[in-house]
Amino acid sequence: MRILLLAATLLSSPALAQAERAAIGTGVSASDRANSAERPIRFAATAPADGVLVIPMAGASDLSHVPTALRAAVTDAVATAGFKAAADKTLSLYGVGGYHRIVLIGVPAGQLDAAALADFGGRAAQETRDNRQPVAILAGTLASTATDPAAHVALGASLGQYRFDKLKSSADAPAVQPLTIVAARGEASFTRDHAGIADGARMARDLITLPSNAKTPDSFVAAVRAQFAGVPNVRITVLDEAEMRKRNMGSILSVSAGSRHPARMMIVEYRGAGDAAPLALVGKGITFDSGGISLKPGAGMGAMKGDMAGAAAVMGGVYAAARRGARANVVGIAALAENMPGGNASRPGDVVRTMNGQTIEIISTDAEGRMVLADANQYAIERYKPAALVNIATLTGAVITALGDDYAGLFARDEALATRVQRAATASGEAVWRLPLHPSYAKDMESPIADIANGASGSGPGAGRGAHFIEFLTPKPTPWAHLDIAGVDGADESLPTVPKGARGFGVRLFDALVRDFEQ
């Protein structure tokens, strides 16, 4: 009897019950492995005499980057294959000039900007991924509008060779021979200014790709904490649900109400500019979106593991700024929750209160991203009084209908901030397209019983209505902009700097935006 009583006591202990509630899924990790190592990036002033050599070409007749000893062979190969050397197109030669393989990659003619340089480096890394030999990329003769062009080529190569294979029980051993950027200079610039961007994007892609039985608000926080460990001038604060209740954050709490994994609001502050007002970056972090009571269709629901891509981009962008010691103050906020149809889940028709007292009628529990951003924006403005605030979120399917997978939708109530975001998009190669905030959206989102509804009946401009909702609940006069990245968070086929899968869209854009705010 004593043994049975002892067993019953142990099984019902509060600590054990709490541990069981905190377990993710089965409580058994799908894998204890890390992603396989990527090629180390090196720099050298001269090209090696063997291995794999990558050569840029701006058109079929451009031999300016081709070593003299290889020009005859390259000319013959280009003519035989009818290779036009158009941008991002490739041609391979084998067993020529002592090299195992020579890869010709088309680049735009004329002065290359930073994005084009990175595209060249990324394509080079992807094209040579399966070669076991060392790889060398000729970058020293590229004409560019960017300072230290070889550093941008190295950034692209680092981004392009990303892989996620940690969940495979066994994986083919990847090539580990170095990838060398052949140029007289650029290593110091890459290490100081660009390596952190690649690492920030890698973190974001890892988080997005990770399945939701291994990803909750708490595990997101833990992963980001680990990434920032040792980075100077950084302070991390995490609000739990008890703290959010004290602050009347009913909007974000309404999203997590049906989940056994509580919401979190993660704040990462980087200070590099004294007492200057910070740039606030606020991202949607839904670690899984079932739609809640307004349940999504089953087809494609698995992709909702990536509904925290905005929060991941924010954390990656702040990390990049902190790693290079940006002369700016930046606050990154990840509004984290899991949207599930549990017994305590929010219902359509419920009314909830935001931090500053405004109220929301829930029309659809599947319009949850805007809900978590509302409280996060209000907190950011009250606590940090930022110079500007930018949201990023996989917010609406409507933006995909409007812009496909070529652009993120940009909404803004401040023209100067919109211009800065567009400038950062161009510099980073992460494209945006400005969309309107039409006055009619306010009428569409009216509620008879609350200050605003989180949705509207019938078809219409879903991306614009979602942006209006966020803008309505974001206190004025703070300059505000919003990026809807639902169409660009993933790549169905490889892009120059993005292997097929999660893009980590926003990390490079935010790095460029922070540079625009530097003092």
Describe what you observe in this structure.
This protein has helices spanning 2-11, 14-22, 71-81, 114-127, 149-160, 187-209, 217-228, 241-246, 250-256, 309-323, 369-384, 398-403, 415-428, 440-444, 462-472, 507-517, and strands at residues 41-44, 52-57, 90-96, 99-106, 135-138, 179-182, 234-239, 264-271, 279-289, 329-339, 351-353, 359-361, 388-393, 408-412, 432-434, 452-453, 480-484, 490-491, 501-502. Residues 1-21 have low confidence and may be disordered. 51% of the residues are buried. Helix 11 packs parallel to helix 15 (462-472). The protein contains 16 helices and 19 strands. The protein folds into 2 domains: 41-184, Leucine Aminopeptidase, subunit E, domain 1 (3-Layer(aba) Sandwich); 195-517, Aminopeptidase, CATH 3.40.630. It is an alpha/beta fold and 519 residues long. The radius of gyration is 25 Å and the shape is elongated. Strands 7-8-10-9-13-17-14-15 form an 8-stranded mixed sheet, sandwiched between helices. Strands 1-6-5-2-4-3 form a 6-stranded mixed sheet, sandwiched between helices.
Feature tags:
disordered N terminus; 519 residues; Leucine Aminopeptidase, subunit E, domain 1
Shape: elongated
Q: How many helices? A: 16
Quickly name the level 1 CATH class of the largest domain. Alpha Beta
Radius of gyration: 25 Å
CATH topology of the largest domain: Aminopeptidase
